[in-house]
């Protein structure tokens, strides 16, 4: 997409994942295929290449970009895609419209013209906004969590003009370290108990297989086998509940 000139920058390459709606963007000095390919190369070597690449600039432009990508990465395999339906093309156009509006507001609010700098903040905000398509934040779908945000601990330190780790009071640092140690102990104990449950469950399952191989015919022995199965299921159920509760505890920290 074309934008008002900012020093040598005249264009914005806006890349969006079709499923998660996660966006990447970079200010460009030209629309040459090699410059776009270099940007895609940086993305693909971190997140992996897609199966299909499509663009609102047409298939010929995409072909040129793919050729440049192959020159940079000879083993890469990407299909020159086409929109599956009109909504696919609209996805890029709407995203570009949102990006352009937000970038204009950033420039106005900050009284700045260097949109190439503000572009980073806009893309970050877009990736951390709820998307109506899946009612999730694209950042969460890609990384499985939210970025680091507000911290009560840092807020207290900053209010006291403490900006270096060397300036943190020893009492405060000791409380933090004690909390970390408690969390480490919790994780260690949970790992030990979980391993024990898994060992017991595996032993019970092995016993079940052994009983089946011996073709036990005695009804009492069959009853014991049934009880063993129930105990196995119970152990697994307890294990799953334990892991679920652990994840909730860790999230609190």
Number of strands: 5
Low-confidence stretches: 216-229, 231-253
* Distance separating the two termini: 43 Å
Overall mean pLDDT = 77
Structure report:
This protein has 253 residues and is mainly alpha-helical. It folds into 2 domains: 2-143, Nucleotidyltransferase, domain 5 (2-Layer Sandwich), CATH 3.30.420.10; 161-252. It has 8 helices and 5 strands, in the order βββαβαβαααααα. The chain has helices spanning 33-47, 59-72, 86-110, 115-127, 138-143, 152-159, 170-213, 219-252, and strands at 2-6, 9-16, 23-28, 52-53, 79-80. The protein has a 3-stranded antiparallel beta sheet with strand order 1-2-3. Helix 2 (59-72) links the parallel strand 4 and strand 5 (79-80). Helix 3 crosses helix 4 (115-127). It is extended, with a radius of gyration of 28 Å.
Q: In short, what is this structure?
A:
This protein starts with a strand and ends with a helix.
Key words describing this protein structure:
Nucleotidyltransferase, domain 5, extended, mainly alpha, three-stranded antiparallel sheet, 253 residues
Question: Topology, pairings included?
Answer:
Elements: E1 2-6, E2 9-16, E3 23-28, H1 33-47, E4 52-53, H2 59-72, E5 79-80, H3 86-110, H4 115-127, H5 138-143, H6 152-159, H7 170-213, H8 219-252
Parallel strand pairs: 4-5
Antiparallel strand pairs: 1-2, 2-3
């Amino acid at each position: 997409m074309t934008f008002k000139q900012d020093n040598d920058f005249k264009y914005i390459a806006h890349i969006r994942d079709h499923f998660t709606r996660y966006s990447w963007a970079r200010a460009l000095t030209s629309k040459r295929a090699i410059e776009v390919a270099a940007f895609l190369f940086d993305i693909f070597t971190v997140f992996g290449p897609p199966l299909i690449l499509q663009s609102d600039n047409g298939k010929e432009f995409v072909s040129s970009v793919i050729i440049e990508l192959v020159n940079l990465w000879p083993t890469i395999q990407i299909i020159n895609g086409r929109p599956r339906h009109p909504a696919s093309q609209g996805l890029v156009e709407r995203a570009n419209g949102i990006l352009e509006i937000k970038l204009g507001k950033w420039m106005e609010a900050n009284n700045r013209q260097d949109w190439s700098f503000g572009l980073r903040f806009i893309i970050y905000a877009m990736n951390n906004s709820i998307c109506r398509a899946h009612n999730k934040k694209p950042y969460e779908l890609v990384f499985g969590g939210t970025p680091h945000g507000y911290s009560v601990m840092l807020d207290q330190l900053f209010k006291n003009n403490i900006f270096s780790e060397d300036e943190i009071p020893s009492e405060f640092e000791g409380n933090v370290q004690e909390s970390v140690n408690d969390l480490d102990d919790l994780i260690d104990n949970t790992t030990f108990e979980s391993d024990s449950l898994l060992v017991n469950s595996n032993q019970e399952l092995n016993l079940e297989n052994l009983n089946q191989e011996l073709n036990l015919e005695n009804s009492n022995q069959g009853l014991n086998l049934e009880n063993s199965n129930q105990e196995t299921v119970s152990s697994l159920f307890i294990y799953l509940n334990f892991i679920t509760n652990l994840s909730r505890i860790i999230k609190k920290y």
